[in-house]
Amino acid sequence: MKQRLSILLVDDLSKKRQAVVGSLRSKLTDFDVVFEEADRYETARDQLKSRNFDFVILDIKIPAGEEEASEKWSRQLLRDILDGSLCYPMHVFGLTAHSDVADAEKSFYEANMFGFFLFDWESDEWAAAISAKIEYLALALHNGSAYRFNSFDYDLLIVVARHKTEYEPVKNSFFGKKKGAEHPLWPDRSIFGQINLGGGIRIRVAIVCIGEAGLSSAAAVVTQGMQILRPRVIAMVGMCAGFEAKGVKILDVLVARESACWQEGKSVDKDGDEKFDLRAKSRNWSSDLGGLVARRVEAQDRSLFGVLEEFSRRSDYLAVKERYGDKVAQIPAIKPGLVVSGSEVVSSEAVAKEVLSRHPAALGLEMEIFAIYSANELALGKRGECLAIKGVADFADKDKRDDTQILASELSAEVLKKLLHGWFSKAT
After folding, report:
1. pLDDT tens digits, residue range 248-270?
2. In terms of residue numbers, what domain contains 79?
3. CATH code of the domain containing 95
4. Ordered DSSP codes for 168-227
5. Residue 55: its H or E element
6. Domain total of the chain
């Protein structure tokens, strides 16, 4: 499949535009080249404002308004491009038959790193030179994209669903009161910067809030994040519901060894009795980081469980324990296992029992992890490590409280930091 290139040709002479298009097409045969044409400043500006072009070929004298062709209008178009008000192409080529002003304009083009060539009706050397540069730049872009898809940029992308009860406590856990940069793709719901994990380990971190719960929105945002940020580790943290029948307590920390969508299947009517035919596929944590989690939990790692002990002495933890009594452990536990996802908020004991009947091994449920794991497993290029950690804030019943949810989210972030320290220490 040929690489497509879009070229805007700006020249007021129709005959010259025809000659330029014909000459360049004959030389750029390895590419699918699409030409658009403009005969004056206003037309070129409108086209560069409304769509993107890979390259622009510009005569140094073009008309505007009621004025005749002049070099001031081609310069104005270049300034519009350079100040960001128009499409910013990969390269601009000045191409002119006006030898009387060529020397003066050439210095302006070269000062801005643009190409400059003299058009000749009798020779196509200019076409060969422009084609060679287009081919080089296009292949460089293609190879650069291939390299980017097979390399990492950010060390860690953290994805959370809700703003108040997940994004804010997780952001504070990683960045404290320090302000970081926002990404224009996620304004008011992202923070980017470097953090120190301790022991001289500094990592580039991006935290992005989806802004809503649900599988589809989670899949969309994490796919965008992987493509744009190319993270070495993708982690989802926050809060979830736990199954009390499985020995889970409020403010325990669930690490999703695997996830499945509890609503994936088929309802069938058998002799007037409706049955659910479970067809859910499972997705797993990534082997390297997940293996580290399993080993450290199995070994009762003191540095990891020290975080839990310290947390259990906090006044806000003790306040939640006083409220719920034995439903909160003296010290929260880390439990790896199956955490199922679905597209609805579960605030019903009957629905929770139905979910558990479909997935008897499940420790808890929430609304995003399956999408996160699926997006990572199906990602293009080199895939990073993937992990989801959530603190238990309720038992999938009506008793859902902001303070418990905030505390559960913060605890999940603190556990993640401790696990990442061990993983990045090993990775470096």
Report:
1. 999 999 999 999 999 887 777 66
2. 3-149
3. 3.40.50.2300
4. HHHHHHHHTT---BPPTTSTTSEEEEEEEEETTEEEEEEEEE-SS-SHHHHHHHHHHHHH
5. strand 55-58
6. 2
